[in-house]
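Troubleshooting: if your tokenizer reports a length mismatch, compare your output against this known-good record of 599 residues.
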Amino acid sequence: MVGLKNRMQKTEIDTEGAEEENENHTELAFDFNHSFEHMDWWSGLADLDRLNILNSPKEDRARLLASKYSKPVADIMVEIGRKTDLEYIEDFELPESPTKLLSMRLIHNYCCLPTEINDKGKLCIVTPWPPSEKMSRWVFAVSGLKPLWRLGPPEKISRAITENFGVGADSLDDEDFEEDGQDEEQDDLEDQNAAIIRFVNEVIQRAIVDRATDIHFEPHKDTLQIRYRIDGQLVPVRVPDNLRSFQDAIISRIKIMSGINISEKRRPQGGRITFSQGQSDLDIRVSTLPTLYGESLSLRLLNEKSQPLSMQELGLLGVDERNIISVLEKPHGIVLVTGPTGSGKSTSLTAFIRRIHKPERRIMTVEDPVEYEVAGINQTQVNSEIGFTFASALREILRQDPDVIMVGEIRDRETADIAIRASLTGHLVLSTLHTNDAPGAITRLIDMEIEPFLIASSVEMVIAQRLVRRLCSKCSKPTTKSDKEIIASLALLDAKESEIKYKDKILEAFGCPDCQNLGYRGRVGIFELMRMSDPIHSLVIKSASAPDIREVALKEGMSTLQSSGWNQIKRGLTTVDEVIRYSDSAIEDHELEDFSSNA
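Known-good structure output:
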């Protein structure tokens, strides 16, 4: 079998021959300024910054340069085009078979795409960064055509490559592993191992660029499916057609990276990967599960260096923010944030802690895992393997003289009991529960066998939240729904018919390249705030049901998920359909609770 290195060397020899034959012609074909490669065309840049940019992938260089000057990437690309005399185009169309014009290897290695052969017989190529002379010579050697370079939006080019060829298509090119004798078997094995490593890295890097929170490798009968979870939605990833044949090698590679036993395929396992991305390290939690056609892998991406959000960035309205702050300023009590997995509970708690952090306050957290680093806060991570659980960590934290304690999650009676007693002894405790709405948190604690009078004495506020997808600011458009449809939607959102006067502010998702044609980019929170009052205290002591507590809380002025969602719709941040998804589920939950209590 012929190794990739040997074939590349052979190609270089052939290329050199072609260049010698056409030396004069080639020099005339590439009228290039040699300083393109060293970025001499951009003055006033420190040598270290220049080196960092040039050492980055081509698709990231303009973004790094834009962040350096605090300008949009598009403006930087226009400026690069002006300085290098290269045309910058916002949009481009690909031919039916781009690889007939340019090899997949060059497309991936140089992050460029052929668009057409113009009237003068030149190959028009769009690239995110000014090309080097070496790139031009390679294009001429492989295609036999003189290149005509144009600059294009880096993100669009990178995404077009992924959508048309799949993530890491060049890494798993079958041509790299063709049989051609036994002497090169060892070289070929090394090439294949390197290709698998490169492929896995590309999948993770693409997930980071696409803002994915999870990566799923799912084996099926005929293929290995890869999906990203972006803004709470699973998005299939275009993969090479031959990916199934590399399934075992890919899964083994991820298991090696995460320190998991690669020979054990019968039982679930867990591990973690530290993945370096730029100047920060990404903590990736890996979980394996045996399935019918192989092991299914789930990777949770956690960036401890991620910038935590402020309370305004969460999407809180002014009145809700003031209500929460008034409770957070109290010296003791419990504030609970509830919601399903992935609803942003930890992000909200981190925002609350940042808001109340002061030099005279000692704040300590116990989390699983630490999702955001907050300066000046003492953060601890549980480790169940050595018996360091939420309950045991909470006991030790109470000996550290804290003022505020954040507990990542109340999972059991022991943790709940310690948290409540800590709040009764003069500590402000922030934590999360897995319930569907705010009143449900009270009944959940009662189910954990916590005395109702302790709950009534300690809990100050319960916040239920969801994350809805945020409209893409570049492609959203006014709604086309009729007045009748909007009134029906308002009924589901518990809003009055008179609210139809805000019809002009209702937007719909459309889809564009910036949002991967989804119509949404990012997420925003909707919140249900229940502040404990005397009537609610009385119900809690009587162990009342969640529907009964909800009925009283609404009379006391509790804001609901539906009303919060309607306010976000009026602000142009999300859509009616997106909020109704959660309104419907909330209504169904309440109906079930009513049925259970009547039964």
